[in-house]
Amino acid sequence: MMGERRMQATLSIRSNARRRGGEIALMCDDRSFTWVELRDLIARFAAVLRDEGVKPGDRVAILADNCDLYLSAFFAIPWAGAILLPLNTRLSPGELVELLETGDPTLILFDAGRADLLQRTFDAGAKRVPTLAMRGEARSIDALQAKAAPMEDLNRHGNDPASIFFTGGTTGRSKGAVMTHANHMFNSLGMWTELGADTSEVRYLHAPPMFHVADALFVHAVTAIGGRHVLLPRFDAVAVIDSIERHAITDVYLVPTMVGTFLDELERNPRTLPTLRRLYYGAMPMPEEVVRRFMKMLPQCGPIQLYGQSEAGPILTMLLPRDHDVSGKTTRLRSAGLPMPGGEVAIHDADGNEVEQGVVGEIVARSGTVMPGYWNDPEQTAKALRNDWLYTGDGGYVDADGFVYVVDRIKDMIISGGENIYSIEVERAISKHPAVSQCAVIGVPDPRWGERVHAAIVLRSGEAVTTEEMQTHCRQHIAGYKIPRSIDWRTSLPLSGPGKILKRKLRDEVMEAQSPLPA
């Protein structure tokens, strides 16, 4: 279909250059670009890639912090007909070897801060392919594009791959979720349609890393409406707050761990941030207390929860500001919201049959945002995509009004003494304690019960809590068999680059250090 073909990730760049040519599109450090300048930068960037031997369908990997060239690469790479392959800068050389083996890029772009990591990745066994610095060298993207003549957009089909985002690896090995041009555009259009909000003069702050699919969503979504991108190289609470004030930021996305740090800084140095209209959050559960705290501190700003995963491009549901009801005991703060426009969400049992309202099963979805599959992994693709549904691996249920509730990753569910225990429920109880900064709950082997509930907890600065005190606190909120039988008091939790807690690594650490449980 012609409409499907025209769903190109690069189309918004060309359109904005025509309609908003002189308006500021992008700001990073002391650099700013209008839409015309950004289009020309992208077209020259694409020409450099072509001259470096990149062909349509090739993968181009990036190992770098957020910067203007990184954002440009989201469009320059598909402009040249190739596929963007963002790499998590927090991974070890061995982990990067696995991703590069899967993605098999023709070229790797890197910034100065990642040169050593890239070299160590090659030393660890990664296939040696051509590399090109982003800037600061005689042969770098910024130096070469200054001399290059702009090339025409190759106008890829909407169903052609535009990017590959690796899954977080929170429960196992990362897989490369393919995103087509149309996937990106459907997510952008669906998000703004659901918000039904004034999108004029949107100024979006990129604080999380761009290698994460959630920030990639906003690269495309903000571009689709001609908003302004403001970039930070990495998350820093002080820098986020200063940037919101300095650039009159209207929208920002933060993962819950970042939101907590952001609010702590606002408490130390109060600001009102009057221009901030929307704060999006997702990637992991947000404790209700943090949501309430945010709404009290910044009442003019609407909180919006995004639920999804890399395979979904990434949004499946949204919980809008009007649904963040904090009055009384009955709230929807635990909900992930309603399905995106044009999308469907259902709950299936182990046999693939839809279950009744309120019954827990696996969350499945279908929409124009869902990936066509994993890159070069037909076996995992067949497991994830069945009978036209994406099987998310998340357990959940739907209420009578269609709101989706996520209870746990299926692999994270704990079975103790024959009872199913959802780690999110236990984490929610722990998070109600005012001394808690972060927590994660996992199941560990137990000779009597099969598994027992184990908690890893990080306290807020200056706080002290004993195991017995925390167990007493939890007893007020959850059944006795759900209370953690063991607690690991920590100064930090293992996090992915975007700030998601890596329960797989936590489980490995606990098992390595595990000692017999006291009688």
Output the keywords.
519 residues, nine-stranded mixed β-sheet, alpha/beta, single chain, GMP Synthetase, Chain A, domain 3, 16 helices, five-stranded antiparallel β-sheet, ligase, Rossmann fold
Your description of this structure?
This protein has a 9-stranded mixed beta sheet with strand order 2-1-10-9-11-12-13-14-15, sandwiched between helices. Strands 16, 17, 18, 19 and 20 form a 5-stranded antiparallel beta sheet that branches. Helix 15 (467-475) links the parallel strand 24 and strand 25 (486-490). The chain is α/β, with parallel strands linked by helices. Helix 2 packs antiparallel against helix 3 (35-51) and helix 5 crosses helix 6 (115-123). The protein folds into 2 domains: 2-398, ANL, N-terminal domain (Rossmann fold); 422-513, ANL, C-terminal domain (GMP Synthetase, Chain A, domain 3, 2-Layer Sandwich). Helix content is 32%, strand content 25%. The longest helix has 17 residues, at 35-51.
Please report the number of helical segments: 16
Strand order, main sheet: write it out. 2-1-10-9-11-12-13-14-15
Unreliable sequence segments: none
**Percentage of residues in strands:** 15-25%
Query: How is the CATH topology of the largest domain named?
Result: Rossmann fold
Instruction: List the domain count as a whole number.
Output: 2
The CATH architecture assignment of the largest domain turns out to be: 3-Layer(aba) Sandwich
Characterize the main sheet.
9 strands, mixed
Query: Averaged pLDDT, please?
Result: 92
What's the count of strands?
25
Q: First CA to last CA: what distance? A: 67 Å
Pairing-aware structural class of the strands and helices? alpha/beta
Bin the helical content: 25-40%
